[in-house]
Design a protein that fits this description.
Helix content: 25-40%
Number of strands: 3
Number of helices: 2
Strand content: 35-45%
Low-confidence stretches: none
Largest sheet: 3 strands, antiparallel
Distance between the termini: 21 Å
Radius of gyration: 14 Å
């Protein structure tokens, strides 16, 4: 059964993006019991929805997920 759930865990996800004014903005969250891909995608969706009015779309949104120690 670990075949399906072996890659799930708690991830600390950091997202860096630029505002329309040129400021670098960093947001950090903890995602529980998800895969690394789900953590990254969830953070990207959160930032895109929450900060849609200030994101500079000319620059990429960088998302990094690291497994937290238990």
């Amino acid at each position: 059964m670990m075949l399906f759930f072996g890659n799930h865990g708690d991830y600390e996800v950091t997202c860096n993006f630029f505002s329309k004014e040129g400021q670098t903005i960093a947001k950090k969250r903890i995602c529980h019991n998800v895969s690394k891909k789900e953590a990254r995608d969830g953070m990207r969706d959160y930032v895109t929805n929450r900060f849609s009015d200030i994101i500079d779309v000319a620059h990429p949104i960088k998302v990094v997920a690291k497994l937290t120690a238990k």
